[in-house]
Amino acid sequence: QAKRAGKNGIEFFAPNLDVAAHSQMHIEVRLRRALQENLMHLHYQPQVDVQTGELLGFEALLRWTDAHLGTVPPGRFIPVAEETGLIVPLGRWVLNEACRQVAEWGLTVPVAVNVSALEVAREDFVETVTGTLARHGLSGGNLKLELTERLAVRDLHRAARHLSQLRALGIQLSLDDFGTGQSSVSTLLQLPMDELKLDRSLIMGVADSPADQRVVGALLGLARGLNLNVIVEGVETEEQYRVLRDMNCGAVQGYLTGRPGPPDVWAERIRPHQKPGLR
Ligand code: C2E
Ligand code: MG
Ligand code: MG
Ligand code: MG
């Protein structure tokens, strides 16, 4: 560390930065291996109609428990995967596994898969998605793609073109984390979309704070004006649920209506939404 001291003897490199870089590299090595050895899993979280309580679909969420690192949350390893390009094979794995599961379930409601902007902008993205659907005998209506905006403008045009092509096949497009720095109104102007997912941070106070209710109400109005569906993320309490239902918000996803879980735990819940032969 001392060797890195600057001209005036001030250390510019805090030791914990080195630790961060090191663990980042460690995550990359372990992640690459986990992918090769098929050690990743998907959990599924229900998306629910706020008026009827009916199941509208599931979001697929990556889960990874590593022998050395323990359980690593996606918030930790997805950024590493994006920086290293591992997101491309990882994204393909997620898409394939989610589609395989939907086909096995005979699910009549769609599965939502998170995709990185980096994946969407790739030349082979449309082919990857259509090829995966075909492999499992699925159609566009079985799939929803959730996006956050982390794209250079240059790539945005290509992403928009790819998304339009997929949307024409009946695949729904959802703008994730709306209301955070990651997803903005300007994205809406540039990308084709069917749905907004309001970030959890926006609705945390909605049960208690009239000001928060007004913000959410205004965003629901925005969505309505743009003809977009809304899913509110991170609904944890009955009070939040009631307030959102009374505001006519459409759909919710959160611990209250179901925590993300492995496929088995949804056996009962999916029964009314399976193709007849598979019930
Ligand atoms: P996201 O797409 O916004 O997913 C929702 C996150 O909120 C998930 O965190 C979910 O477990 C969590 N959540 C759901 N309901 C509640 C609630 O009521 N309370 C609280 N506190 N949290 C709730 P998770 O699984 O840790 O994923 C974090 C992020 O990692 C995701 O945010 C998504 O951006 C990314 N991610 C996860 N899986 C994938 C993937 O397969 N591909 C890509 N590219 N990104 C993924
Ligand atoms: Mg998502
Ligand atoms: Mg989100
Ligand atoms: Mg997200």
Automatic annotation (TrEMBL):
Residues 24-274 form the EAL domain. Signal peptide: none annotated. This is EAL domain-containing protein. It comes from Deinococcus seoulensis. The chain holds residues 436 to 714 of 714 of the full protein.
